[in-house]
Structures are given as structure tokens and as C-alpha cells.
Amino acid sequence: MKIGIPKEIKNNENRVSLTPGGAYALLEQGHEVFVQAKAGYNSGFDDEAYIKVGAKILPSAEDVFSVAEMIIKVKEPVKSEYNMIRPNQLVFAYFHFAADESLTKAMVQSGAICLAYETVEKDDGSLPLLIPMSEVAGRMSIQEGAKYLEKPQGGKGILLGGVPGVKPANVLVLGGGIVGKQAAFMAAGLGARVTIMDVSLPRLRYLSEIMPANVDTMISNRYHIEQFLPEADLVIGAVLIPGAKAPRLITKNMLPLLSKGSVLVDVAIDQGGCFETSRPTTHANPVYEVDGIIHYCVANIPGAVPMTSTAALTNATLPYALSLANLGWEKASEKYPDLKAGLNIVRGEIVNKAVAETFPQ
Description:
Elements: E1 2-5, H1 20-28, E2 32-36, H2 47-53, E3 56-58, H3 61-67, E4 70-72, H4 79-82, E5 90-93, H5 101-110, E6 113-116, H6 131-148, E7 170-174, H7 178-189, E8 193-198, H8 201-210, E9 215-219, H9 222-228, E10 234-237, E11 263-266, E12 287-290, E13 293-296, H10 306-327, H11 329-335, H12 337-342, E14 343-346, E15 349-350, H13 353-358
Helix pairs in contact: 6-7, 10-11
């Protein structure tokens, strides 16, 4: 199979979808790999690294899309790439369709096969291609939140872990999945007082068993959230409903409950965001203020640490990419139910239930 690796062009998206090592694994199986010039540069891989393993370097995205049977990307195609995608071409990437109607319509019209990383799901309900980036985003949410709590950044001027004789910050994590778990570990490690809220009591029991003593757990509902917000210095939105829009857990009317200079980090922004006042931002302009509350809503948080993120992503996606390349998407989807769950749009038809309910055809 001919596999294309275009350069990511979303704002400050520094990742690349395949390392040279990943390219080598595909080439070993007899496939061809075409990489756009400088696609891996910001992740620490120059063109020569791909050439050494046998990949071919092409000068433009148009060249890569035109030759490839399967496109492997990191982020969803942007508007300038829509017309490059052909009928029956397999596009393997993060899509997050439920949060983007124009993207959904464009991919329906393209006639392509869109297999979304974020809905590949194993029998136990885990999301293997979302996990590595969720781990990165969860940890980074605390790193970024701590930065924007600083007074020069517009925050209230509080150190996350405090110092002897001074209380640490209060961190509220909404959602106890992979993002929430990693965020809580990171915040707790810095010495903050952390509360995780989730709707699943079994999940909270698990988290309670593995978390350090400065992490509390609580059932998530509007009453509990409203009760906690006056104490919160940093709130992490980490809720995920696979394929569907994120629920709005903090409304605009609830913002006055927070003290001025508090920070909201919405890691769910790819799925529409879990704060009513959230809107997507970029690494170039990551924050904005609403009613004195700092909002950090970068839609590709792991793109800021591409050397880590690219390696972690390839580790997770490569086995699936090999299956798709070796068998073709139809046979691979028949053989592996987790890959079948990743199918979102097939030749003009929305086949993912959550996306179909969001955008009825």
C-alpha cells in the first residue's frame, strides 16, 4: 500500500504522524511511505532520517495526497486540505467530528473513508489511540494551568504547591478518565490539594485507591461543582464521551462563583468543550478572559511537546496502521472490532452513532 505522511499545518501543530522507525516498520512489510518535506522537522526528525529507512520525500502536501492510498495524520484535515482528499482514500487521524460540522460535511462529500483515532475502542471500553495523547494533555493541563495562575499571566498569583506555612492551591479535575487521572497525579505531585469529580462510583473507588493522600474524590453533579468552585484556583475540564460532544459542566452563570484570576483549562475543547464559555484557542494565542476568569482552550495541547507526543502517538498507532496497510481497511475492520469502531465516515455515509446523532443526514 502507498502511505502518505503530510506535514501538519494546524496552528503550532508540531507533531508528525509517523516516526522514521514507524516508517521503517511499514516499509519492511513491503509498503511504500511518502513523507512531505520537513514533515518531521519540528519533532526532531529531518528528511534524511526518513530517507535512510527507505521512505520517499515529496515536496508538497498535494503530492502526498495525490499518490497515497492511506493518509496518516495527527490532527483532522483543515479547510485547505479538504479538496486534496479523494473518494475511497483512507484517512487515519484524530477527527473529533461531533465538534465540527463543516469538517464532517466536507469529509462526507469527499467520499473518503475516515477512521478516527479517538473512537478506536477495545472490548473493555478503553481507547488505545486516545490514551497516549490524553496522558500528555492531562499532564500538560497542570503545567499550563500553573503558569497562567501567575500574576504576570493574568492569574491570581498563587503557587500551585504553596510553601511551608502557606496553603497550596485547590485544583478541581472534572472527569476521572485518562486525562483526569494524569492531571490529578501531576497536580498532586506539585503539592496542590486536588479533588477529582466523576459520575462513576467504581472509577472513583479505583482512583481513591491509587491516588496520593492530597487527592480527594467526589461524585460529579451540578450541586457539588457549584459548592466547590468558590474554593477552586484551577479547574481542569477532562470529560469525554467517545465521538460525542462534551457535556457543559460549568455554565457562564457559574463563573461568578470562581474568584478573579482563577484558571479554567478545557482539555475537552476538541469535543466542543465542557465549559459554556470555552472556545478553541491556539498555542500562538492560548488564553482569553471571561468575567475575570482565565480560559486556556488550546485544541492541540500535545503539539507543544512534539518530541514526546510524536513518539507516544506512533507507539500506539503503528500496530493499527500495519493492519490497515496489510489487510486493507475493510478486511482489517472485519478482523479487528476495535478498528471497526474507529470508522466514522465511509464513502459519504456517517457510520458512527454519536456523530450521526449530532449531524443527522
